[in-house]
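Hi team,

As requested, here is the filled-out complex form for the zinc ion run. I kept the field names the same as last time so the parser does not choke. Let me know if anything looks off before we queue the next batch.

— J.
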Amino acid sequence: MKRTCIGRICALFSLLAVLLAAGCVRIPTSEESGSAPSRTDMPAPAPAVSAIDLEHATEEQLFYIGELTEALPALLEADRELTEIFVCGRIYLEGDYGAVDPYTPFPAEEGSKYADFSAVTALFDRVFGVDGAGREEFLSYPDYGRPAVSERDGKTYITSHFMLDFTDFFVADDVQVLDINAAGASLYAVTPSGLGVRFGAVRTGSGWFLRRGTYFAYSDALREFEQAADWHASPDFATGMDEGSAKRLTGRCLIVSIFLSDPESTWSGEETARVLQMVGEGAEYLGALAASEGVELELFCTGEADSLHYRTDTVLPVDYRDFGWTGTIFDEGLEAFVLRNSDAGSYDNYCIMLHVNKQGRSYALSCNSAYYDYEMYTAERSVMYFTADNTYEYAPNVSMYMHEMLHLFGADDLYAPYLSASAAKRIEAYCPNELMRYVPVDIQETALSPYTMFRIGWRSRLDRQFAAFSD
Ligand SMILES: [Zn+2]
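And here is what came back:
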C-alpha cells in the first residue's frame, strides 16, 4: 500500500467536493440510465459507457480529473467558436458581402474580428495547442467544394456555399470521463438532441487540449448511426427509390441484355461482343466502387451465352420520346418474356437493357409510382442505341451504359435542363465527375456523389451538402 500523508488526503477530498459541485464528472443516477428524449431521425441516446466512478477512482485519476475540470469549459467554448466560424458561417453571417460567388473564397471584411488569419490561428492554439493536429479537420471542411475558411497572405478567406445552422453543442457539465492519465483522457457526452459523442483530450507540458474539434466527433457519431438507419425512414426518401425490378443497387443484381433486330437492323457477333464488353466493364467498375464504399453488391451481367435475342416486325424508332414499343413488341409483355427466358427472378434486383443497333440517344424507363403509367415499367428497362461511329454525339461508351442503368436503380440526372441553374452549379463545384452529369469514354474518370449513392441505396441518409438535390 502506498503511503499517503494526511494533508494529501484532505486535498483530495476537497478536490472531489469541487468536482462534484462543478458537475464535471457525473456519477450516472438510475434515472439517467433510463430512456431519454430523442429527436426524430436520431438514435436512442447514450449507449452504455463506463465512466470513471469517483468513489473508486485512483488518486492519480482524481488529480488529472481536477486539472481537466479547470481546463475543459474554456476548451469547449473556444472549440464552439471554431465550429461557429467554420461550420455555421459566422464570419459571413456577421458581415455584408453583397453578391459574392458562394463557391469562390473571398476575403473577410477588413476590420472584422477574424479578418486576420492570426485570430483564427490563436483559436486553434487555444483548443489544440500550438501545432495541434485538430486544426486540419477544420481547414479541410467541408468534404465537398472549396474550404469554408482558408488563409491567403495572412488574411482570412471564406466561402458561403455550405453553412449549417448547427446548435447541438454540449457543455463541460455534460462530459463524462471514461479514462484519464498523464497523457490524456477519453471523454463522452450526450448532446441536447440525444447523440452520444466520444472525443478525446490530450495533456501536454502546456496543459490540456482537445484532440479534435468536437463537431467532427459529433459528425462521426451521427454517420455511424445513419449507416445503420432505415433507408425508407429518411426524410429524403422519395418515389422512384426501392421500386420496380431494380429497387436498389445492393445484394445480387443482374443486368439482362436483350439484342433486338427489326426489319432495318440486326446484330453481328462482333457487335454484341463489343456491347457486352462495355456493359461488363461498367459493372466491374461499379462493383469495385461499391466495395470501396463498404456496400454489399454482386453485379452480374448476362454474357454471350445467356443474353437474349429477339426479332420484331416493328420498325424500332430512334427517338427517345417514342418508347411505347418497349412494352408492346413482346407478345407476353417484357417482364414475362425476361422471367421466362432468364433466371432474373432469382436475383434481388434486375434491370433490362434493350440493345438496338441504330444511331440514337439512349434512355432509361424506370419505375416511379409518381407517374400514372408506372405499373407498365416494373420490369425496369433502358434502351441502348449502338453505333460504331465514335463521332456521333451520343455514341455509346461504358459510362453511358452505367449512367442509364443507374437511372433504373433510382438515380436522377444531375445536369441541365434537369436541374436548376443553382443546383447545376453546386454539383459542378462538389462532384464534377459525377456519372449522372458526365459520361466520358473512360468510366474510371467518373465518380458517384453522395446524392446518387443515396438514391441507389448505398447510403441510408443523404449528406447535408447534397440536400439541395432532394425536393
Ligand atoms: Zn440520364
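Two things worth flagging: Residues 8-27+46-228 form one domain. The CA atoms of residues 9 and 90 lie 47 Å apart.

Thanks,
J.
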